[in-house]
Write a structure and sequence with these properties.
CATH superfamily of the largest domain in chain A: MetI-like
Number of helices of chain B: 18
CATH class of the largest domain in chain B: Alpha Beta
Largest sheet of chain B: 5 strands, mixed
Radius of gyration of chain A: 28 Å
Shape of chain A: flat
Strand content of chain B: 15-25%
Largest sheet of chain A: 2 strands, antiparallel
Structural class of chain A: mainly alpha
Strand order of the largest sheet of chain A: 1-2
Number of domains of chain B: 2
CATH topology of the largest domain in chain A: MetI-like fold
Radius of gyration of chain B: 22 Å
Number of strands of chain B: 14
Oligomer: heterodimer
Chain lengths: 317, 395
């Protein structure tokens, strides 16, 4: 009897412990439920519709009736068989590599410069950068457009006055290369403040005595930069590069507005512009959704490095 | 579907209707809009008219968004080249043609742009042709006593103008390089065309012999007369801005260009009909125009139709005519330079997908290639022609 009572007691204790443990283990999950719900509504629901849209024929006709026609993977097949898609992808990849490289190299150079210059110059440069940062993109595009204007742009005037050549009525929008080069200047100019200020903050973490010791040992500045500064900045550089790739790959406002809707052709598309033209101008929303999902997958693949790094930084004590 | 049928019951209680007009009305004839609103409100006391001005560049994207999400206009102004795609998709409600003023004599081209499958979806609003606006003082100073009667004479006069105006960048006749409205005028003047339907299929015409002759003539005319960018369109910059800065002796464009030539040149500005290559014949001009339509999503279709009646009344159309536009009906036509220029006109292919050709900048791109010499005329025209055919033949 006593033994039986004891086993029941032990059992009930065990059971209670089991429930306690389960409860304790589930608390963290319970705590993230609200967040999951919010993310699910804000991201998941539109994403669901995007995927659904990409499997439908959804043009103007369907838009008015609020009813698409399911076509399976036809949209994917048609986009992936579209030569313009592949040309645009290649152009966008090259464009991204050039933009990110220029942004990172120029950003690093200016950040290093900031460490060396006097306090007054540092304040001036930093204020300049912050001003660039605070300018809305659309305004910046309009000003760039005025400056590079064919008829009476200041750039042509100054270049001619400096006797660099006869730039009277030079057409900066005549070739795709020239168009995308202007877009690159605009993007790099706009991206520098964030990169410079972040890198400058990172440079403050480089221990001074370490640099001094290396110099005493006879290391040249380039060596110091390569073997001390760079390794310390690595996490920051990785994050900045990843973010720049994500931003530049999907850039829309600058190319679309600077090149101008009347000069956008399949010969100068970047991915986002291609998406916009196919989806909105041609009112082929199903195909537009397909392109946007393909872009999403590519950006997601590119972001893996960034996310992994972020997770690792989070794990560090 | 339910939304459209249920909406009909709300028409009598509506307290306001929304009208989307292009900014042209805002800058050119706001008084006519106000007059139409007043007339409408005296017929429908308590109903207000909310006029929202739109830009040509993005009004279709905005319209698409309202078709999907609601909150769209009850009346929308559509360019006549934009109508077909939307009528084919069933975006507009059919209208009772006979209820509008002068509907029996509506301009044929304009009425056709608003008709689909035997029904009327668009009410002609106004049309516009393209004329030459020029500086009388500069023409006089250059010794030009008679206005050019052919394109060849124009080029000869340009040499005289250039001799008297040697500043760099000065255009005897400013034409933006990719202004396809002007360029296609040359194509049609030489008997060419853009595309035609052969047994149900669209066939590109730009690479035909006659079209090539027109494009060749355009290129040499452009090079002799205009110092505009070879790759820019007719709104970057606006030709009248170039003219107002004294950098052009003349320009081609809608007749309302006189609005913006600047105070300095207002007195010395006049207009004439752009000649073609054959003496006595005007160059065929693009007959641009606007229609007014009622979207199927409107909850106030009969009020919307009433407002269109007021805005396209004989009085209103005469007002538009006084502002330099072509009224919507032949019985109202006068003898202004604008109306004479409309005597020879051309229009874009009336295909569902034509608007994709415009938005894809196929013609502009071809013109830029031709003028910059990136491709030969034959190469550029052939590729554009194939391109256009494939866009128009989409299902």
């Amino acid at each position: 009897m006593a033994a039986a009572a004891e086993t029941t007691l032990i059992r009930s204790r065990r059971r209670r412990r089991f429930w306690n443990r389960t409860l304790q283990a589930s608390i963290p999950y319970g705590l993230i439920v609200p967040v999951l719900v919010v993310i699910g509504v804000i991201l998941g629901y539109p994403l669901y519709w995007l995927v659904k849209l990409s499997t439908q024929r959804y043009g103007l006709f369907e838009l008015i009736r609020h009813q698409g026609v399911s076509v399976g993977l036809d949209n994917y097949r048609s986009v992936l068989h579209d030569q313009i898609f592949w040309h645009t992808l290649l152009r966008t990849v090259v464009f991204t590599v050039v933009n990110v490289s220029l942004t990172m190299v120029a950003g690093m150079a200016i950040a290093l410069l900031l460490v060396r210059v006097s306090a007054v110059v540092r304040v001036l440069v930093t204020s300049g950068l912050v001003l660039v940062w605070s300018m809305p993109v659309v305004v910046a595009v309009q000003i760039f457009y005025w400056m590079t204007n064919f008829q009476n742009g200041i750039v042509n005037y100054v270049l001619t006055q400096l006797r660099i050549g006869d730039f009277f009525q030079h057409d900066w929008y005549a070739t795709t290369f020239s168009q995308l080069s202007l877009v690159t200047v605009l993007i790099v100019w706009g991206a520098l403040p964030f990169v410079v200020i972040t890198l400058y903050a990172g440079l403050a973490q480089v221990p001074h005595d370490l640099v001094e010791a290396a110099e005493v040992d006879g290391a040249r500045p380039w060596r110091v930069f390569r073997d001390i500064t760079l390794p310390i900045l690595r996490p920051i550089l990785l994050i900045l590069t990843s973010l720049s790739i994500i931003w530049d790959f999907g850039v829309f406002t600058q190319p679309f507005l600077l090149i101008g809707p009347s000069k956008i052709t399949s010969g100068n598309y970047l991915m986002s512009v291609y998406l916009f033209e196919e989806g909105y101008f041609k009112s082929d929303f199903g195909r537009g959704a397909t392109i946007s999902i393909l872009m999403l997958l590519m950006v997601a693949a590119l972001s893996v490095a960034y996310v992994r790094k972020m997770v690792r930084i989070g794990d560090e004590p | 579907m339910a939304a459209t049928s249920g909406a009909a019951t709300t028409k009598t209680t509506a307290s306001s209707i929304t009208v989307w007009l292009q900014v042209d009305a805002q800058s050119g004839w706001p008084d006519l809009v106000a007059a139409a609103n007043q007339q409408f409100q005296s017929d429908h006391p308590g109903t207000t008219v909310n006029v929202q001005y739109q830009n040509w560049g993005d009004h279709l994207q905005k319209f698409d968004a309202t078709l999907a999400g609601g909150g769209g206009p009850d009346v929308i102004e559509m360019g006549n080249t934009e109508m077909t795609k939307y009528m084919a998709a069933g975006a507009f409600a059919p209208l009772d043609r006979s209820s509008f003023d002068n509907s029996a004599t509506w301009l044929k081209g304009l009425a056709a742009s608003g008709a689909f499958g035997g029904k009327t979806y668009g009410v002609p609003y106004y049309a516009g042709s393209r004329v030459v606006t020029y500086r009388t003082d500069l023409f006089k100073k250059a010794g030009i006593n008679k206005l050019p009667a052919t394109t060849a004479e124009y080029t000869a006069d340009s040499k005289k103008l250039l001799a008297k105006n040697s500043q760099k960048g000065f255009s005897p006749l400013y034409i933006a390089g990719t202004d396809w409205y002007v360029a296609m005028g040359f194509v049609f003047d030489y008997g060419g065309g853009i595309a035609t339907q052969v047994s149900g299929k669209w066939k590109g015409l730009l690479s035909s012999k006659k079209s090539i002759a027109g494009l060749t003539a355009y290129k040499s005319f452009y090079l002799a007369n205009s110092r505009a960018s070879k790759t820019t369109d007719e709104t970057h910059p606006n030709p009248y801005d170039v003219y107002a800065q004294g950098q052009a002796a003349s320009m081609i464009g809608p007749s309302w260009f006189t609005c913006c030539v600047g105070k300095k040149y207002t007195a010395s500005t006049a207009q004439f009909v752009m000649p073609g290559h054959v003496k006595g014949q005007a160059i065929p001009g693009f007959l641009g125009g606007s229609d007014l339509a009622v979207p199927v999503t409107s909850g106030n279709k009969s009020l919307a139709s009433d407002w269109i009646k007021d805005f396209t009344s004989t009085a209103s159309e005469k007002g538009l005519q006084a502002k330099g536009n072509i009224p919507n009906a032949t019985n109202l036509l006068g003898t202004s330079v604008n109306e004479r220029a409309a005597a020879r006109s051309w229009f874009v292919p009336t295909a569902k997908h034509w608007v994709d050709v415009e938005n894809g900048n196929i013609l502009r791109n071809m013109l830029a290639q031709i003028l910059t010499g990136k491709l030969t005329i034959q190469q550029a025209a052939s590729s554009a022609s194939d391109n256009i055919a494939s866009v128009l033949n989409q299902p």
